[in-house]
Amino acid sequence: MGRYGGAWKVRVTQAPEDGKANAAVVRLLADTLALRSQDVEIVSGHASRDKTVALEGIDHDEMERRLTQASDAGKDS
Hints:
Helices cover 40% and strands 19% of the residues. With 77 residues, the chain is α+β, with helices and mostly antiparallel strands. The protein has one domain (2-76). The strands form two sheets. Strands 1-2 form a two-stranded antiparallel ribbon. It is globular and about 30 Å long. The two termini are 12 Å apart.
């Protein structure tokens, strides 16, 4: 996971079939951002690699901080 231009890039191992990859993206973001899965929604790009996600219960600055922290931690492993 890391910055990709003005967006964030994430990687999941689930195959993009029957919504499995989308569900994995939701779980990954919920876990990383300490949110409930219900608070993470893919609002566009369901069948695309590029997705738009809506988040509830977190502001933009805190989301950026948590994603940056997770990205930095991933570089150390």
